[in-house]
Design brief:
Layout lengths: L1 H7 L5 H16 L2 H12 L7 H27 L9 H15 L5 H5 L36 E4 L14 E2 L1 H4 L14 E3 L7 H6 L3 E6 L5 E2 L8 E5 L7 H15 L5 E4 L4 H4 L7 E2 L25 H14 L3 E6 L1 H16 L5 E6 L15 H19 L5 E7 L2 H11 L4 E3 L7 H15 L1 E7 L4 H13 L39 H4 L8 H15 L5 E5 L2 H5 L5 H19 L5 E6 L2 E6 H6 L10 H10 L3 E5 L3 E3 L4 E3 L1 E2 L5 H4 L9
Parallel strand pairs: 1-4, 6-7, 6-9, 9-10, 10-15, 11-13, 11-14, 12-13, 17-20
Antiparallel strand pairs: 2-5, 3-4, 4-16, 7-8, 15-16, 18-19
Helix pairs in contact: 2-3, 2-4, 3-5, 4-5, 9-20, 11-12, 13-14, 14-22, 15-18
């Protein structure tokens, strides 16, 4: 009604239009009693407003907003507040009380553009103002005194003091409305453990990370930005989604028209056949998020100190000032060296890292891009191996996966595996096969999930024996020993000198020594056949290595959303003048981590004392395969690892014997 009155006055001044528009906006945001008060207040002034009337009306609007906050504060402190004397304020107070009961936000908060916990905020909210009140009935306010270490992220002005700041284009954009800009000093802490004796005994200090998101001030103009994206290392799900979102954020949010895709990882900087970069436009990347693989390609080329200089030379030659790097922990170290070389040359270059690793072994962060898709692919592979193993007599299915965290998560998610063997947890193959024999006797088949690289010493010793006497090894099952892995690279001979030149057609010289050329999957397969053959048992053993299939899968919906947020946060970091940092999610919050801090931390590995490993043990029901007849106590967890005894029945070995007979 108020807006209709404003439109009906043809000779209204600009000030009058602004006031009437403010009234209309305020009416749309307030409750019904407040709307009646505002409409009655404006009825006499909407058509004939002088300057004095405009000032009085503006003062009335401010008074109503203040009364809203005062009434809300009184209602939060008093359960039964006395009725106000003024009639209009009574209606306003009644409306705000109903508003509080319905869970709506305070009036002034909604006038400022919404809470940070609304659905439009990608990082999650900070909570409403009501949660900060001490007098609350939801719980007791507890004060904790913990040590925090603030991890600062370097900025371009730290070595380029002459840089000029510009207003973020998102500030002046009419649509979409963006009010979730991040302050210069906003940080996000690690998960804090209160009253934890274990944390107190270790003297844990918690990190404060710079919060991810757009800044109101930027250090780049859209016309000067020349961005490049490089995906180094292996192939992982989610690469196309990150590339697409970086291009979309550059073009749609910051109006950047120049973005390039480096072909085949680091090779695109120094290989002449790969120097034809892709020009990334919105039309080219429109539908790549639905496809697996990578539009940029990939290679296993590394970037050492000599190649870092070449990389920076190419960046300087092409005028690149924003470099987005996708890769694993080793790539993160190379990206830091590229940033250090750019600082040495006084180049205006922001290097932003996006964690991409199928091993999911970055420190501090919750997960890498594509991890959910990798786990889902591993779960599908375990299920298909189960179907194949259960379809033959004495079927044993062995699935080799490339990461301990993928093994743990997929085994827990599938519930189909009987044994899970990891790289950093010792086991005796003899104990494993004796346990598998009991499982096959109980249900007719067994499924083993093993991490690539497990039992490295045993496999290396076995390969040395085969290299010394190749006739000891006989082909077993399948054609050409399916999924042979790396064994053909060391047969039929072993070089005594790692630096010896390789003969034509011989791969041994290229690899040098035998160390690192092992395949735990083939080791388990051949030794399982020998073990059961010696006992007169017929088994069918099949080895599956689904890593290539998993790496090329299209990303799942959860990974797509995660990749979108990570990629957009990377662009916000570069425009905000941040450099030498990695985008990640810590405790369900998106933050910027300094690359030097990430590189100084050791890679996380699966430990026998971890909670995840104990959960996996409960999922498989497997005993300890380290030594027969000796149980191992996991201190601090109250969990006794069940020892394996060959003469013991299977129902007594498993934590849940009924699972085997289902």
């Amino acid at each position: 009604e108020v807006w209709r009155c404003g439109r009906g006055e043809t000779r209204c001044c600009r000030t009058r239009k602004g006031v009437i528009g403010s009234i209309a906006q305020l009416c749309s945001l307030t409750s019904s009693p407040c709307r009646e008060t505002l409409t009655r207040l404006n009825a006499a002034q909407s058509m004939r407003m002088t300057c004095a009337a405009t000032r009085r009306l503006s003062a009335s609007l401010l008074l109503i907003a203040l009364c809203a906050d005062v009434s809300l504060a009184l209602n939060s402190q008093q359960t039964h507040s006395p009725a106000p004397k003024h009639r209009s304020l009574g209606r306003l107070s009644t409306g705000l009380s109903a508003q509080k009961r319905s869970g709506r936000a305070p009036l002034t908060q909604r006038l400022r553009g919404g809470l940070e916990g609304d659905a439009g905020d990608e990082d999650g909210g900070l909570g409403t103002e009501e949660e900060g009140h001490e007098n609350t009935n939801n719980g007791n306010i507890v004060e904790v005194s913990e040590k925090f270490c603030k991890q600062e992220v370097l900025t371009l002005p730290s070595y380029l003091s002459h840089l000029q700041q510009y207003q973020n284009p998102l500030v002046t954009r009419a649509w979409p409305i963006n009010t979730n800009f991040v302050g210069l000093n906003e940080t996000v802490t690690d998960t804090v453990f209160c009253n934890s004796l274990r944390a107190q005994s270790k003297g844990i200090s918690y990190n404060q990370w710079v919060r991810a998101g757009p800044r109101k001030q930027t250090f780049f103009t859209p016309s000067e930005v020349n961005a490049a994206i490089v995906s180094a290392g292996g192939l992982d799900p989610g690469i196309n989604i990150v590339v697409r979102e970086i291009v979309f954020t550059l073009e749609l949010a910051y109006n950047v028209k120049r973005a390039w895709g480096v072909r085949y990882g680091w090779r695109g900087f120094f290989d002449d056949s790969a120097k034809e970069w892709l020009e990334l436009t919105q039309a080219r990347v429109q539908h790549i998020h639905k496809e697996g693989g990578s539009i940029l390609g990939y290679s296993a080329e590394t970037c050492d100190d000599e190649r870092v200089v070449k990389v920076v030379d190419v960046l300087e030659e092409r005028g690149i000032n924003q470099l987005y790097v996708l890769g694993n922990v080793e790539v993160c170290k190379s990206a830091q060296k590229v940033q250090q070389e750019a600082v040495r040359r006084k180049m205006k270059l922001a290097v932003i890292m996006v964690p991409k690793s199928i091993e999911n072994n970055f420190p501090y962060i919750d997960k890498c891009i594509g991890f959910d898709t990798v786990v889902q692919g591993a779960v599908d592979a375990i299920h298909r191996t189960l179907l194949a193993a259960s379809s033959v007599q004495g079927g044993i299915g062995i699935i080799k996966l490339g990461s301990g965290f993928v093994c743990l998560t997929s085994v827990m998610a599938s519930g189909d595996a009987d044994v899970c063997l990891l790289k950093h947890i010792n086991f005796s193959p003899q104990c494993v096969f004796q346990y598998v024999e009991k499982v096959i006797a109980a249900k007719g088949y067994a499924v083993i999930v093993v991490e690539d690289g497990a039992a490295e010493e045993l496999v290396n010793k076995w390969q040395q024996q085969l290299a010394a006497n190749p006739s000891l090894r006989k082909p077993v099952g399948g054609s050409m020993d399916e999924c042979m892995g790396k064994l053909p690279t060391i047969l039929p001979r072993l070089t005594s000198d790692a630096s010896a030149p390789a003969e034509e057609g011989d791969d041994v010289g290229a690899l040098g020594s035998i160390e690192g050329c092992f395949d735990i999957g083939q080791y388990l397969k051949e030794h399982a056949i020998e073990f059961f053959k010696a006992r007169g048992r017929h088994v069918t053993v099949r080895l599956s290595t689904p890593e290539w299939y998993i790496r090329s899968m299209p990303a799942l919906a959860s990974d797509r959303v995660f990749c979108n947020i990570i990629a957009a946060s990377a662009v916000h970091a570069a425009f905000g003048g941040l450099m030498n940092c990695m985008v990640g999610r810590v405790s369900q919050r998106y933050v910027y981590l300094p690359m030097d801090v990430v590189n100084d931390k050791n890679k996380p590995v699966v430990k026998e004392t971890s909670r995840m490993y104990n959960r996996m043990i409960r999922a498989t029901g497997q005993p300890s395969f380290t030594r027969q007849g000796s149980a191992k106590l996991i201190t601090g967890r109250g969990d006794v690892r069940r020892a394996f005894t060959p003469d013991q029945p299977l129902s007594q070995i498993n934590a849940d014997g009924s699972r085997i007979h289902d």
